[in-house]
Amino acid sequence: MARSIMPLMDDSAPPIDLAETARRLRSERGWTLEEAAGRTGLSRSALSKIERGEMSPTFQAMQKLARGFEIELAALFGPADSPLRGRWIVVRAGDGAATEMPNYRLRPFSGELRNAPFLASEVTLRARSLDDFEDWERHDSDDFLYVLAGRVTLLSEQYDPVELGPGDAAYFDARIGHAAIASGEEEARALWVTAPAR
Prior knowledge:
By secondary structure, this protein is of the alpha+beta class. Helix content is 19%, strand content 27%.
């Protein structure tokens, strides 16, 4: 007998509230701001701004939050209790909530899925130059980037820049400093999959 398919979210899904999630995670553990800052490796000031919604965390900051709170990265984007085994989630075009980051708009496909072995997202690239980044992006993961629309230049502190168009893909060790920028005239969108580095 066929199982019914649960959609990820409906069109009215609100934006992902990382501020509320960070506050909830800290509250559940009974940690002070100082203790949470120490465990995540973020400054007390940065963590406070994230919790108040005054700062959009970078992907690296989100990884620090997940590591410090001892949860999978995908759990920052969905409800607290959803089993992985037997889960089947379908994401329709235009569905799902997004979060704004300094250089990217991130629409994670995890939805209600918690503790997934990877995080897959549709990413709209906003940066047009390496100067748009404060520093190279670095995180403890292996990343896969597949261009959906537009042109993307993948930059690395170790390799020559690579220009990618629709249908092109790149797999890389995200512990090496990197950045992805939109390099064409049209909007650049990509599927970005992140899995813990092994």
